[in-house]
Amino acid sequence: MMKQIREVSPHFKARIAGVLFLLVILTAAFTELFVRGRLGFAADLVVGVIEILGMIVVTLLFYDIFRAVNRSLSLLAASFNFVGLTLELLQFNPRGAMIGIGFHGLYCLLMGYLLFRSTFLPRILGAPMAFAGLGWLGFLSPTLIHFLSPYNLALGLLGEGFLSLWLLVMGVNVQRWKEQASA
User: Fold this and answer.
1) What pTM did the predictor assign?
2) In the 8-state DSSP scheme, what is residue 119?
């Protein structure tokens, strides 16, 4: 089964990642802006788990796509995101700092670098993703959260949104991906 998954076109994987990433971003934004606290604990938990499961799939797809650029950094980025997702799922929130989102910020910074180093996607996509990472890293400090909000949210949503839309609409250049993967 793993062999069949690996044989799937990187273009198709990128499109699926783009769709799922966009759905996760829209669900998270909608939940945070309009729903949080109104549906009750159980509903918030269900929505949160759905977002996290979607992000797990996106992380796995991104690892597979970006291992062509640098396998070690792609694995490190995925590891940071998995730690962050686990902390978010456990609602680990000491002193108001959102450590899980901070780990997601590290993930976005590494993804920005991998995007910049890739030959199969436009390098310019790396900058908004890196800025998204900086925005999410602001959540490590309760003081910064209050000082930077809502600008840090905008950086995160726009940076990740650009990447998800690009992958959804354009995908990746398969020929260049194969060249970089074989190098």
Assistant:
1) 0.88
2) S
